[in-house]
TrEMBL record:
PROSITE patterns: NODB. It comes from the Bacteria. The chain crosses the membrane at residues 36-57. InterPro entries: Glyco_hydro/deAcase_b/a-brl, NODB_dom, Polysacch_Deacetylase. Pfam families: Polysacc_deac_1 (PF01522). The keyword Cell inner membrane does not apply. GO terms for molecular function: hydrolase activity, acting on carbon-nitrogen (but not peptide) bonds. Gene3D superfamilies: Galactose-binding domain-like, Glycoside hydrolase/deacetylase. Signal peptide: none annotated. This is Peptidoglycan/xylan/chitin deacetylase (PgdA/CDA1 family). GO terms for biological process: carbohydrate metabolic process. Residues 1-21 are annotated as: Disordered.
């Protein structure tokens, strides 16, 4: 601690409870660059020559192009897409985050049973949708294996997996295989409407070179047009065929501002795709139908470790010294509302080599923060209902901040809990200390961080959490 350090920030006023969009009112941010960015300026030059060019299907193309329509997260508005598929005789693969089943705005157990009965595939997408690479190996295994076990216990055949945020590495691929999946989908490994991806292949091969990171274009978002969607198929048709996996999240109007397309646009594309199928120029299959293979036995993940003894700091990697890419191990970047957060490791830290700096721009609503991963207990502290917890952290910022808290319920659903009083901005390292109210009944885990609710920066380090009892 230096001479300019303070022990307690200056409190101003509490912030009213909020429940932003997305799971439990928090948006977990993807910090991984698309694979094609490494290809550099050559891709941009070629893309400039191809800008605005559509790809027309050959008049007598053979059905050597296979399209898989995939839907991530289990959002309830995907029922609209499923109804369209059913009416057109098409099928898709629905990658389900199991902790969100039966929760508000997500698919119910009955929904999933009907989706499967209509000939669609149910695939795995972890339990709580974390960035798997940022977790401990034991927690990643729990997320991958237990999500599959939950779906199999519901009676589904589960052979296909999709990485949350397309975040994977060789170790994570090995865990997916170990948990019994036959394949796992990535993103950003084939060309898409983004000009910088123009030098990438138009489609994956059948069979894929690596079934545990199958190639797919960038996920479909609100900027995609009907021509963009059709081009993904016709480009493959005119370049030798292959496997085109399209990734959808919301099929709605006025939901997620980015990962959404309208029901009208989806219906237009699905109708066109069905016509291509009827003409024999394309096949539409689930991921399992493309990969093949038998369903492997269920594999249960490791047990959650017990909470530490009283008086022990409950935070994993509290000094942010162990890094994975730009995020400390066991930590996640979250937020909600309309804003653009950017996270970076900075040196030195309050103590040790590193701290984490968050820069917020374009803010018109919501906030952003660094917090322990919203997981099953490998990184997030285990909580005891009725107990209170003392929180401590060091920060310096250009805007007020506060502790913002979430808790885990059920099989892995995270909910907004509460927030501490706001603390004024501090130019020098300052420690905040606050004790929570009693943890609500039914809660099993806690996550929290220091937020920023205005354009500016906040740097944080040296987090502590202690169980102080009822």
């Amino acid at each position: 601690m230096g001479a300019t350090d303070k022990q307690q920030g200056a409190t101003v006023s509490p912030l009213e409870s909020r429940a932003g969009p997305g799971v439990s009112g928090i948006r977990i941010v993807n910090h991984f660059r698309k694979r094609w960015t490494a290809f550099g300026s050559t891709a941009l030059i070629v893309a400039g020559l191809l800008a605005g060019v559509g790809f027309a299907a050959p008049a007598h193309a053979a059905a050597n192009t296979v399209v898989s329509l995939t839907f991530d997260d289990g959002n309830a508005d995907q029922l609209t897409a499923e109804a369209t598929l059913r009416s057109l005789g098409l099928v898709g693969t629905f990658f389900i985050t199991t902790g969100w089943i039966d929760q508000p705005t997500y698919l119910t157990t009955a929904n999933l049973q009907q989706i499967a009965a209509d000939g669609n595939e149910i695939g795995g997408h972890t339990v709580t949708h974390p960035d798997l690479v940022s977790l401990t190996p034991a927690e990643s295994t729990r997320q991958i294996c237990n999500g599959r076990v939950a779906l199999m216990n519901m009676g589904f055949k589960v052979t296909s997996f999709a990485y949350p945020f397309a975040s994977e590495d060789p170790a994570t691929e090995a865990l997916v295989k170990q948990c019994g999946f036959n394949s796992a989908r990535g993103l950003g490994d084939t060309s898409s409407k983004d000009p910088a991806s123009a030098t990438l292949p138009a489609a994956d091969t059948i069979p894929p070179a690596n079934p545990y990171v199958t190639a797919a274009p960038d996920e479909v978002d609100s900027t995609w047009t009907l021509q963009n969607l059709e081009n993904q198929v016709t480009h493959a048709q005119t370049t030798g065929g292959g496997w085109v996996q399209l990734t959808f999240h919301h099929i709605a109007v006025g939901t997620d501002p980015t990962l959404t397309i309208t029901p009208a646009l989806f219906n237009q594309f699905a109708t066109w795709l069905a016509q291509q199928k009827t003409a024999g120029t394309v096949a539409v299959k689930t991921v399992d139908q493309v990969i093949g293979g038998t369903q492997q036995p269920a594999v249960q993940g490791p047990a959650v470790p017990p909470p530490p003894p009283p008086g022990t700091n409950m935070i994993q990697n509290p000094g942010l010294e162990t890094l994975v890419n730009t995020i400390p191990l066991c930590w996640a970047a979250g937020g909600y509302g309309t804003n653009t957060p950017a996270f970076a490791v900075v040196s030195p830290g309050h103590t040790g080599a590193y701290a984490e700096q968050l820069t917020l721009t374009g803010r018109s609503s919501g906030d952003a923060k660094l917090l322990p991963a919203l997981d099953l207990g490998g990184c997030s502290p285990t909580g005891t209902p009725g107990h209170r917890y003392q929180l401590k952290a060091w920060f310096k910022s250009t805007a007020p901040t506060q502790f913002e808290l979430y808790y885990r319920v059920g099989n892995g659903y995270w909910k907004y809990w509460t927030a501490s009083p706001l603390v004024l901005a501090a130019a020098n390292w300052t420690q905040i200390t606050w004790t929570t109210p009693p943890l609500p009944a039914g809660a099993s885990g806690i996550s929290w961080g220091l937020n920023i609710q205005a354009n500016g920066t906040i740097t944080t380090d040296d987090y502590e959490m202690y169980d102080v009892g009822p």
